[in-house]
Design a protein that fits this description.
Largest sheet: 7 strands, mixed
CATH class of the largest domain: Alpha Beta
CATH superfamily of the largest domain: Crotonobetainyl-coa:carnitine coa-transferase, domain 1
Strand order of the largest sheet: 3-2-1-4-5-6-12
Radius of gyration: 25 Å
Distance between the termini: 45 Å
Strand content: 5-15%
CATH architecture of the largest domain: 3-Layer(aba) Sandwich
Length: 426
Amino acid sequence: MSSALAGIKVIDVSQVAAVPVAARHLADFGADVVHIENPRTGDSWRVYQAGQGTGRAGAPSEINYNWENFNRNKRSVTIDIAQKGGQEVIYKFVETADVFLTNLRPFELKRYNLQYETLSKLNPRLIYAALTGFGKKGPERDAPAYDATAYWTRSGIPHMFTRPGMSQPGFRPAFGDNLAGMALAYGVMTSLYVREKTGKGQEVDVALLHAGLYQLGFDIAGALATGLDYNDWWDEPPPDVVAAAEAGLAPARAFFRSKAPNPLSGRYTTKDGRIITIVALQPDRYWGMFCRALGLDELENDPRFNTIEGREENNAILYPMLDEAFASKTLDEWKPLLEGIPYAVHQNLHEVINDPQARANDFFVAYDHPTHGRLEVLANPVMLSETPATIRMPAPEVGQHTEEVLLEYGYTWEDIAQFKDKGIIA
């Protein structure tokens, strides 16, 4: 039996999780996926899992089950895309490819000459699918992002899982990457279908933040329609109940934090009580910048903390220092200092639906509803450059189109009258 995507060629210039899993979906159905890796470091996702290199996450194992899960059915090719010669090899691949996948940030795509405008000239039939953290437009288009920051934290998911005044839930690796990757693969498949009819490729655009809003669609729709956060209508529990719950959880939180291997991947509370999530999965890369941002320059070269192993061994000393630093400033004071570091703020629904980055990338769309007037809703998270999703009609009233559809299928008005008499239709 032939595979569904046999003959489809995919060039995958990405790493970590969301785009690689999108490519894996295509590979599972028979596409020939060539995964491009850095000649010196490879894909950083190879060493994320405990038991693999510097990895600390998940069940320790000599079996790299994490890598297998996200990258099965692919072929790996090492190319240095920072070199002109490496870019020319990519161009050669693209000339006969069907799909190009990437999660390089917009400024990186420009730096490495891999923008859609460049590659589509080489191959007008190319489906160019790019995933970003916060969208390809707006002031934060080039900001570093992971699913724990862009998809989970910033979209309001922890806020909606938490009752007022109580601790917010944790997170699991690649939780949002899996959904965003599925959305990207869906966009690719839709575009391949369009290409069969038109012969032309197009650009597919998916953002982790938009995917998080989509996952929270029930609550986002409510906030857009009413302007209300759930704290505006949900009864807050009595203070003594909150205090008792928090006191009971405190020892458990302290224990789990003591086991956390990476202090650059965790939550901290600001002076004004806001929660900031830091997710630096390559902590040595960000350690110096992190120390300078927090005003803890003296820690940058401290032998207790300047390695992954040192921070893990001495986290009982380091965590209180970081807690004290974050508690010294308000959220607004921290925002400019943390620029360039992968982080996100735990937002409520008021903040989410007014998020400037979400607005800049058209994550919300308005249309005229026949009953309610101008209504704003969450846009489709899969954005296509040539055949975008549209809102052509509101959600229907029950049975609104029964007669219209039956007539289209060849039934007569007499048939329809008999259906009504027999109670087959309303």
